[in-house]
Write a structure and sequence with these properties.
There is one protein chain. By secondary structure, the protein is mainly beta. It has one helix at about 5-30, and strands at about 55-70, 75-90, 90-100, 105-110, 115-125, 130-140, 150-160, 170-185. The chain has an eight-stranded antiparallel β-barrel. It is built from one helix and eight strands; from the N terminus they run αββββββββ. The model is unreliable at about 1-25 and about 25-30 (pLDDT under 50). It has one domain (about 5-185). A hairpin with a 3-residue loop joins β3 (about 90-100) and β4 (about 105-110). The N and C termini lie far apart (about 45 Å).
Length: about 190
Amino acid sequence: MNLRSRRLVRPARTLAGVGLAATLLATVAGSAGYAADGRPRPVDVPAVLRPPAGQVLSADFAAAGVQVYGCADGAWTFTEPAANLLGWVRRRPGAATAVHFRGPSWESTDDGSLVEATVVASSPVPGSVPELLLRATRNRGDGVFGRVGYVQRLHARGGTAPTGSCPAGATTGVPYRAEYRFYVPAGS
């Protein structure tokens, strides 16, 4: 392969990656929270799920994964989330990626920054895990999650615990999708 053909291949891969990211983002989030250009659009959420005044949207991710449940005393109990996230970060070109796991925690796979949070408000969604407002309890790094103060889980679909009894020690993952919005103090 000569230098000229390398130059042609790289942009094609980059463009294909961006196209794939946009397709995945549209598939995961549906039309719920994204405009045609892939950026988050304003959404109407219950007042209890709104971050305090002075917080601005810094990143928005569509999540696809599972809510993991374990069997304790014959009943399914929540253990942890496990999801891949794809989305948009303010002032950064291209798609961003992250993972969501026990804590609850979100870690950028692009820059290694992390935010852990605790639930401060919940709003039920029939047949799905609830929508949430979470407050950051710990941040790491200077990247996308380094200054996050609040997180919203919106447009939740699926992920509820199985019904009925279960054998001791069993675990199961229940598929879910959601949109996670991350907020930082204004001026950050």
